[in-house]
Structure formats: structure tokens, C-alpha cells
């Protein structure tokens, strides 16, 4: 009996080539596994296609709700944004896919796992760190680091020579990754940072601001302990929540970014990312935290947010530090409960009010009218103590005839 290899299968150009390549270069039976994290219709017809190109078995695993609950929600609660822009759409899906590949490998008694990530990309790191963390005994095959194929054009020619249908047109060679959370685009004119993206051609989830409605739309999101539970008073499943927000955000041109980012492997790359629902959710969650978190927690959490984003981006999800950060974030979210209203207009998100039973905003303290909780006279002693180091320094400078430059 032949040994088995589990292939992370999408049905795209890379994995379409990989099935016959594995059969030609390894004495393995290929088990194709498509992990559905929200690709939508992209999974239609994949079983027939995988078997037709040489796979002995095909799995389709729908994990949309698991993706949202175990990966999206922790990331939102952490306010994790990579390099100030990227909401980690591809990054946070990869550890879940790796987890499912390992589970199928155990079920099938497979020897190896194969992925189609390139040797220049981040995903090879994310997949392989996940696999190593969950089962270090599994062999990993990464064709892009082994084969002689050098480009997408080479892949197309490879399939044509073998009489296999090419899953894309030669003129449409954007590299895309779609899941419930986002859609990324790389390649073609995007490889030149000096060129404006052709958004009319690129965008799938969203519209451009010019094509968005001329009237603003309001959306109200209710949270419980940092987790969204209702949109405009209506309850949804975890995946349904993201789909609804994608619909609302997409038609209002929310959440499209053009980013030149630092990849894990050391180079810079450019991509266009669509995250309409996620961008709304981040904005609403942040507004609620402004109400509910104290100064020191909010300040320290910004440091945690950055580290969380770095770990998620680099594929270090199944690590002790990530576990610790998630635990810290969950502790901060115990009082992040309430509702936030946002106004969406032509790509803009404008806060329109927030309320929470745990709000630390006290109208009596904040008002210009003097309240019983605040005595203006107390400020004098506070300022004297708070400014004492400045006063001491000024006295020393005066004594030594040191002139400050203002």
C-alpha cells in the first residue's frame, strides 16, 4: 500500500499543478483537502476536479464558525493590526487550515502534508509552523522550493502539456486569497508601488467610494465581553455576523487598503486587501473600549495589540506567548459590553454614539459644571507634585546659569 500525502487544496493554479506533480515525483497517494474558511462558490466542483487530476480522495471541511470564534474574535478583541493597516485576513486563517490538515493526516495515517505556498511568501512559514507545533513527525513538502517551475506562466504551460484544464485566464493572474474575513490581491500592476491600483477591476467584495451611495448608512453593533452578538438589534451566527457586516461595509466602500508590507522572509511586498465587515467591527470594538477600559489597561493593551499582530502575521499562533496574550486580552474584555453606532459614508466610518453599563465615563466629572466628585482646588496640589521634577531641574539650571532653548 502506498503512503499518503495530504494536500492543502484550493483548486487554484498552484494546487492544480501540484497533484500531477506529486504523482510524477513521489510514490504517494494524494488526498486533497479543502478547508472552507469562507471561500464561497470557489469550492464548487472541486471534488470532481481534484479526482480528475489524480487525487485518490477529497475532503471539504466547512469551518467558517470555528474560524470566526477561535481566530477572528480573539484578533478583534486584541485590536491587532499589522503595520498599522493589515487586519490579518490571510494570517489568521492559516493556523486553522494547518490544524485541519494535521487532523486529516492522522485520520488517513498519512506520512506527509503538502502545501502550495511560494518560497518567497509568508504562508509557507504559517503552514509549516502550525504543522510542526501540532505534529512534528509529519513530513512537509513545499513544491515551490523544489520544482523547476519559475512562474505562473510556467504552471499554465505545465497543465496545457498534460491536457489539464487551466483554472484561470492568462490575463487575470492576480494572486488572490479569499476567506470569510477578507480578500487579498497581489501581482500584475500591484507589483509596482508607483502605480495606482485598478480598483474597478480588482475589487470583488467592495465598491469604490465614487460608486458608494450618496446617503450615509447607520449600523449599530452590540457586544458582550468584546464579542459582537447583534447587528441593528438582530442576532446572527458567528459566520453570519461577518457576512452581514461584509454586505453592509462592501456597498459603502469600507475597508479597502493598499499596503506595502514587510514579509516574514525579509522582503517588502504590495497588496490590496478588502476587509469591509472586519473594518467596521474593529472600529466599533475600539469605540467601546474607549468607554470601558481604564487608562493604564488601554495603554498597555496597545503594546499587546502590536505583539499579537506580529505573532499572528508570522504564523506563531500555536505558541506559549500567543496563549498568554489571548488570556490577557480576554481579561481586559470582561467589561467591554455595550452598543456602538457608526455612520458609514463613502469609505468613511464616523462614530455616532456608544453606551455601556460598564462605561467609565462619568458625566459629573467630565462636565464643565462643577460636580460633587471633583474639587477644582485639588488640582493645585496635584500640579505641584506632578511638576516637581520640572521645577527642580529649572532651579538647578538657574543656579548654574544654564539657559534653556525654547
Report on the architecture of this protein.
The structure is a single chain. This protein is α/β, with parallel strands linked by helices and about 400 residues long. The chain folds into three domains: about 5-175, Rossmann fold (3-Layer(aba) Sandwich), CATH 3.40.50.620; about 175-355, Argininosuccinate synthetase, chain A, domain 2 (Alpha-Beta Complex), CATH 3.90.1260.10; about 370-400, no CATH class. About 40% of the residues lie in helices and about 20% in strands. The protein has helices at about 15-25, 45-50, 65-75, 90-105, 125-135, 150-160, 200, 240-250, 275-290, 295-315, 320-330, 365, 380-385, 390-400; strands at about 5-10, 30-35, 55-60, 110-115, 140, 175-180, 185, 215-225, 225-230, 235, 255-260, 270-275, 340-345, 350-355. A hairpin with a 5-residue loop joins strand 11 and strand 12 (about 270-275). The chain starts with a strand and ends in a 7-residue tail after the last helix.
Please state the CA-atom Rg, rounded to the nearest Å. 26 Å
Calculate the mean pLDDT score and round it.
94
Summarize the main sheet. 5 strands, parallel
Which structural class is indicated by helix and strand composition?
alpha/beta
Look at the structure and name the CATH superfamily of the largest domain: Argininosuccinate synthetase, chain A, domain 2
CATH topology of the largest domain: Argininosuccinate synthetase, chain A, domain 2
Q: Give the spatial strand order of the biggest sheet.
A: 3-2-1-4-5
Please tally the β strands and state the result.
Answer: 14
CATH architect. name of the largest domain? Alpha-Beta Complex
Helix share, percent: 40-55%
Q: What is the count of DSSP helices, taking H or I runs of 4+ residues?
A: 14
The percentage of residues in β strands lies in 15-25%
CATH class of the largest domain: Alpha Beta
Can you tell me the residue ranges where pLDDT is under 50 for at least 5 consecutive residues?
Answer: none
